[in-house]
Amino acid sequence: MKIHLRQIPDDGLHLEGEEDRDILELPADEGARAAGPVRYSLDLGLDANGLWATGELFVDLELRCVRCLESFRFPLHVPDVALQIERPPTETVDLTPSLREDILLALPAYPHCDWSGERVCPGRLEAQEEAAPLAESDGRSDSRPPSAWATLDQLKTPANPS
Ligand SMILES: [Zn+2]
Question: Is residue 92 within 8 Å of 5, Cβ to Cβ?
């Protein structure tokens, strides 16, 4: 995404459009794949320090759930892009590396397929079934710590980032 500095008027420039998903260069073994183009809505301007850009990025991703390992669609939204790029000796600036970095930083570290609530993660169901009989123990004198497995699961399960 090359910006010609001379095309930026004094009062700034608003840009909206799409970039090919390939700019993300997502590593294939990470379980994250772009399912569509990178869409942007940016305001650009020049000041004494160089080029600045603020705005938003959107890209539809396909991620792999850390719990059930199934792939699911995740619309990534970076609402607070804020770039400052030193004025280069050339007349063009390539924003691609900066935009890619913003998106990579916004990738969920522990993606869960039930992020939207529209789906129940099969992995989460299994965890509930394991815990259920203990909840219905109906006052049996079994004093064994009831939630040994649940506690273990909590230790193993990373905190939900949201
Ligand atoms: Zn899942």
Answer: yes
In a domain, 30, yes or no: yes
Domain annotation covers residue 116: no
Reported pTM: 0.72
CA of 72 to the centre of ligand 1 (A): 8
**Residue 70 lies in domain:** 2-106
Asked whether residue 92 is assigned to any structural domain, the reply reads: yes
Cα(146)–Cα(150) distance, integer angstroms: 8
Query: Among 21-30, 90-99, 120-129, which range has the highest average pLDDT?
Result: 90-99
Average pLDDT over residues 60-79: 94
SS3 state at 10: coil
Cα(153) to centroid(ligand 1), Å: 15
Q: How far apart are the CA of 146 and the centre of ligand 1, in A? A: 25
Residue 114 within a domain: no
